[in-house]
Amino acid sequence: MSFFERVYEYVKTIPIGKVASYGDVARAIGLPRASRQVGWALHSNPYPGVVPCHRVVFADGRICDGFAFGGREVQKELLLKEGVIFSEDYKIDMKKCRYKEEG
Fold this sequence. Notes:
Mean pLDDT: 93
Largest sheet: 2 strands, parallel
Helix content: 25-40%
Oligomer: single chain
Low-confidence stretches: none
Structural class: mainly alpha
Strand content: 5-15%
CATH topology: Arc Repressor Mutant, subunit A
Number of helices: 5
Number of strands: 4
CATH class: Mainly Alpha
CATH superfamily: Winged helix-like DNA-binding domain superfamily/Winged helix DNA-binding domain
Strand order of the largest sheet: 1-2
CATH architecture: Orthogonal Bundle
Distance between the termini: 23 Å
Shape: globular
Order of helices and strands: HEHHEHEEH
């Protein structure tokens, strides 16, 4: 499976109401130094509506200024509808909303 496909498969496991950082995704697929490449893969997401790339954010909880599918307002709205808690205008409360795999 290609790097991009591994990213997409993992991101599909992030549940509604949770987020992961680019680094979290990179670590989860076994390439902890590939967070920038995770961003590239998500920017190129050929499966909008299937791969919830809006659930991937920066490690400090910031959402991306250039969200690929409509800008940060769209990303924020999608996350708010899912129950994600923001601590500041465009910053997610990672302590409450970060996805942690079980096991």
